[in-house]
Amino acid sequence: MAAHLTRRIVSGEVEDGRAPSELDISREFGVSRVVARETLKILASLDIVDVAQGRRVVVRPRAEWDYLNPLLIEWLPGEIVGELLQELHQMRWLLEPELAAMAAAGVTEETLGRLRDELDRMAALETDPNAYLEVDHEFHMEICRAADNRILDRIMYSARWLGTASRRITNEAPAALRKATADHTEIYEALVARDPARAREAMRKHLANNSTLLAEKEKQTRRATRR
User: Fold this and answer.
1) pLDDT score of 222
2) What is the pTM of this model?
């Protein structure tokens, strides 16, 4: 019910910013008030609605929704998810090159060993996109942890669901995983050299390649929609 109501709100079916009340939900779906109340709690937890005792249920501005929540990502239409992935990539451009530079300045041998193991796993998983995706994510989080900034670490971790969606798209391209392994190897080598400038540039190159793949996927989607 929460998914259905979210899609209804996104489509503009809810007028004047007024979301269905407990009574409305109970009557429409034939459920108890308790179930209706829990449905509204889910929407409120996603910052989609405000629920206050004795007041109507109000839809919050879309800019304030919790777009890092995996539930919301599953319920939004594809075009909006596509926009969010582009915005995620902008965030990665702002943060990850600097995180790589910070990591290069203080990376430990222990961390380098884990990164080397993950690179070896990537090379072995280039024909298995789903398994590759998990190792790819852990490689980037290992760099984030090496930067030793807890706030940036939590920002990156919170965006993991969107990051997973983004990697699923970029990993679909022909030879994408082989190229990704090569990019990650360059980042790793810059970290081994403890060279912040080189690590920053290697991460930028990797993100630029991802940006190209995302743009190509968006073009393909638009062409398919026109047909």
Assistant:
1) 61
2) 0.82
